[in-house]
Specification:
The chain is about 65% helix and about 0% strand. By secondary structure, the protein is mainly alpha-helical. The protein has one domain. Helix 3 runs antiparallel to helix 4. About 10% of the residues are buried.
């Protein structure tokens, strides 16, 4: 078992909880679609994920101070972007993927 020096295991659990909460909060519209589905349909998902990552990095420390939620959003959009890149590498359009080894 890996002994983490900087609480990575606890932080990863917190990230999972944050992501779960976003689905409960606003990603579960009546239609089952969210804005990310629209970005994917329009072919602009990578650009949207990247720009949202930049947005939240730039606002960290400004709006609402050093708000950890901004970092959670950067990570979440980073996960979306990583998924998109992995899907491209595999040559498919799936919206979910298993981590690459």
């Amino acid at each position: 078992m890996t002994k983490y020096k900087r609480n990575e295991d606890k932080i990863i659990k917190g990230i999972q909880q944050y992501i779960d909460s976003t689905y409960a909060a606003h990603y579960s519209a009546h239609s089952g679609r969210d804005v990310v589905d629209d970005w994917e349909d329009m072919g602009i998902a990578k650009e949207a994920f990247h720009s949202n990552m930049v947005k939240y990095v730039k606002r960290f420390g400004k709006k609402e101070g050093y708000n950890p939620k901004d970092i959670m959003k950067v990570i979440h959009y980073g996960i979306f972007l990583l998924n998109e890149l992995q899907n491209e590498q595999r040559g498919d359009n799936a919206t979910s993927s298993e981590p690459e080894e």
